[in-house]
Amino acid sequence: MDISTTEARPDTLMDVIRLRRSVRTYTDQPIPEEVLRSIGSTVEKAAAAWGMRNARLIIVREPGEVRRLRRAVFSGVLGKINPWILTTRAHAFIAACGYPSSTASSDDRAQYLAQAAMLMEVAVLAAAEHGLGTCWLGGFGEAGVKRELSITDDLRVVAVSPLGYPSERIRRESNAYMKEGRAALRRMELRELVTMMEEA
Ligand SMILES: Cc1cc2nc3c(=O)[nH]c(=O)nc-3n(C[C@H](O)[C@H](O)[C@H](O)COP(=O)(O)O)c2cc1C
């Protein structure tokens, strides 16, 4: 069955935000090249708008490279928290990276983390708009991933994510949420996350 024809697609950014959830089960449906390019181009536009210099996003989609990257993500101590990544059917990966030493002063030290995180989240939302799933991974073997992607010493890998079409179950659930105008999952209470300062 071609699920895409029956899918409710998100119309607005709020729809995309409501629809997005971490996806850990994927189908092996390939991702069209133009979709990958569109995600890359959205990230590029966001980065240009912020005048971003300290971060970059890598999209990995060559099948052999994706296979090797699964093992690299699982490598090291941190990678072991994500054993599911070894068998993921996701067709691609994204990696958000930052240059720590390119920041001007010590006060700016965390800028590369913030910028890499921004790129990642823009990519995650752009992917969700195309019906693609992602899952932020902080648990990955950075040394292994860097080796696999031939990343130089001056660049840190801040986060990685598989990128692919969610399993049919997740797509069905997301469809239902979309039609009901609800978020894909239970979310934190507003007061747990946002502090509204009192008016003076
Ligand atoms: C910085 C960061 C690191 C994360 N690392 C992992 C991870 O290593 N493995 C994993 O399965 N999920 C990871 N997640 C996903 C969170 O578990 C998930 O975002 C959270 O449970 C909320 O669920 P949701 O994304 O579906 O809203 C990470 C999320 C963030 C923001």
Describe the overall structure.
The protein has one domain (9-180): NADH Oxidase, CATH 3.40.109.10. Helix 3 (63-74) runs antiparallel to helix 6 (142-148). Mean pLDDT is 91; it is low at 1-5. It is built from eight helices and four strands. It has helices spanning 13-19, 33-49, 63-74, 76-79, 111-129, 142-148, 168-180, 190-193, and strands at residues 55-60, 92-98, 133-134, 156-164. A four-stranded antiparallel beta sheet has the order 1-2-4-3, with helices on both faces. With 200 residues, it is an alpha+beta fold. The chain binds flavin mononucleotide (FMN). Residues 21-22, 24, 81-82, 135-139, 159, 185 line the site of flavin mononucleotide. Flavin mononucleotide is lined by residues 21-22, 24, 81-82, 135-139, 159, 185.
Number of domains: 1
Spatial arrangement of strands, main beta sheet: 1-2-4-3
What's the shape? Answer: globular
**What hetero molecules are bound to the protein chains?**
flavin mononucleotide
What is the string of SSEs from the N terminus onward?
HHEHHEHEHEHH
SSE blueprint:
Layout: H1 13-19, H2 33-49, E1 55-60, H3 63-74, H4 76-79, E2 92-98, H5 111-129, E3 133-134, H6 142-148, E4 156-164, H7 168-180, H8 190-193
Antiparallel strand pairs: 1-2, 2-4, 3-4
The structure holds flavin mononucleotide (FMN).
Flavin mononucleotide binds at residues 21-22, 24, 81-82, 135-139, 159, 185.
Q: How would you summarize this macromolecular structure in one to three sentences?
A:
The protein has 200 residues and is an alpha+beta fold. The protein is built from 8 helices and 4 strands.
